[in-house]
Amino acid sequence: MNIDVSAIFQIAGIGIVVAMIHTVLKQMGKEDMAHWVTLIGFVVVLFMVVSLLNDLFQEIKTIFLFQ
Amino acid sequence: MEIIQIVGLGLVATVLVLVVREQKPMFAFLLAAFTGLFIFLFIIGKIEAVITVLEQLADRSGIPSIYLKTILKIIGIAYIAEFGSQIVRDAGQESIASKIEFAGKILILVLAVPIISVIVETVLGLLPVGS
Fold first, then answer.
1. SS3 for B65-112, per residue?
2. Of B6, B69, B106, whose CA–CA distance to A63 is shortest?
3. pLDDT digits (tens, 9 = 90+) for B8-53
4. Residue A5 in contact with residue B38, Cβ under 8 Å?
5. Residues 6+ apart with CB under 8 A from B19
6. Contact B23 A7 (CB under 8 A)
7. Has the ipTM of the complex gone over 0.85?
8. Are A7 and B38 an interchain contact pair (Cβ–Cβ within 8 Å)?
9. CB distance B38–A8 less than 8 Å?
10. What phi and psi values does residue B81 have, to the nearest 5 degrees?
């Protein structure tokens, strides 16, 4: 398993930092940039979650004899 | 003492989710999903050991392996459906969650049909012939 507990802190950190950047960019009047930042952060986190989900499904398939 | 690790992980993740939710609810949801996945992956190794023992027992007692395979598939479907529906329910989509559970129940029923028919045939064989 290549993902460890620190990934959870990574996700929380990404969330907080993205929220911060969003606020700063909004204060600067760059609404569209702020939304792009949010979207990119979301995609990064979504990628982590989906890869872990793939791991889980493969494990369940091999363990519970779905093949 | 893995339970301490898991409970600690859950508590920390809960606090983080509460912190993040105020800013970005999307990230809070993904964080909760990630934590659930992580705990599941942590535990599934233990399930593997238990299932190996079950297979040895079934081999020794001469149960046809098709029954054990069916039961294992049912357990797998139950785990996946429960997990998915809980994550969806966390996101607030109650109706989709109940549909996932419904689909899981139906798929389990479909897998269980051969076993049920075997049981019915056995019971019919026990009954005295003619009346």
1. HHHHHHHHHHHHHHHHHHHHHHHHHHCCCHHHHHHHHHHHHHHHHHHH
2. B69
3. 999 999 999 999 988 888 889 999 999 999 998 888 888 889 988 9
4. yes
5. A12, A16
6. no
7. no
8. yes
9. yes
10. -65, -40
Contact B72 A15 (CB under 8 A): no
For the entire predicted model, the pTM comes to 0.82
Q: Minimal Cα–Cα distance from B59 to chain A, Å?
A: 16
Which residue type does B93 have?
Q
Q: Measured between CB atoms, which of B23, B31, B51 is closest to A63?
A: B51
Using a CB-CB cut-off of 8 Å, the residues of chain B touching A5 are 9, 38
Distance of alpha carbon B114 from alpha carbon B66, whole angstroms: 10
Q: Do B16 and A12 touch (CB under 8 A)?
A: yes
Look at residues B80, B97, B96, B77 and name the one whose alpha carbon lies nearest to residue B36. Answer: B80
Query: pLDDT by residue (tens digit) across B94-115?
Result: 999 999 999 999 999 999 998 8
Shortest Cα distance from A27 to chain B (angstroms)? 15
Domain residue extents for chain B: 64-123
